[in-house]
Specification:
single chain; 173 residues; 4-stranded antiparallel β-sheet
Length: 173
């Protein structure tokens, strides 16, 4: 026996609960949805293994971090965090890790300014914990001591990146 709940739309119908009503019926509701998070690229090199595991010196860690974005169409955008971690023991490299963690977001019905801020601050804030976990796991599984990337203030990171871009544009003129 099949029952039809009057609140459920049939195929091809729109659910009335999702339709805007009242004075704002002409404007669409903002949409910000995480579609998928994925490790896009990752590599670890330990060029001096196994001898590097016998090293007694304190390691020196270097970090490089950047973000990128790519519009995919249909209100979808890929936001990517690129990270390079280099561990040195004196002049020898203990390990070099390069990773790109990315996610696909749906962003619709927001102003261009809001869209830019979502892509530059909110999206990296969501993606970064996945990158941290993947790098920590990879490094530890490679027999190096436990390692965790520090927390990042993505708003400050975004502002610094915008300032560098503005400075670069000013020097080209």
């Amino acid at each position: 026996m099949t029952t039809n709940n009057s609140n459920s739309p049939t195929p091809g119908q729109t659910n009335p609960a999702n339709q805007a009503t009242g004075p704002d019926a002409e404007t669409e509701r903002p949409v910000f949805t995480l579609q998928r998070v994925y490790l896009k690229d990752c590599s670890l090199e330990a060029p001096h293994a196994p001898h590097i595991f016998l090293e007694k010196q304190e390691p020196q860690l270097e970090f490089q971090l950047d973000t990128a974005e790519q519009e995919l169409g249909n209100n979808l955008v890929e936001v990517l965090i690129r990270c390079t971690v280099t561990c040195r023991f004196g002049d020898r490299i203990g390990f070099l890790v390069e990773a790109n963690e990315a996610a696909i977001f749906e962003i619709a019905n927001v102003s261009d300014e809001q869209r830019t801020l979502l892509k530059g601050i909110t999206c990296p804030t969501i993606v970064y914990p996945y990158l941290r976990a993947n790098l920590s796991d990879l490094i530890q599984r490679s027999s190096f001591p436990p390692f965790h990337l520090a927390e990042i203030n993505w708003e400050a990171f975004y502002q610094q990146k915008q300032a560098k871009m503005a400075e670069s544009a000013a020097t080209r003129q």
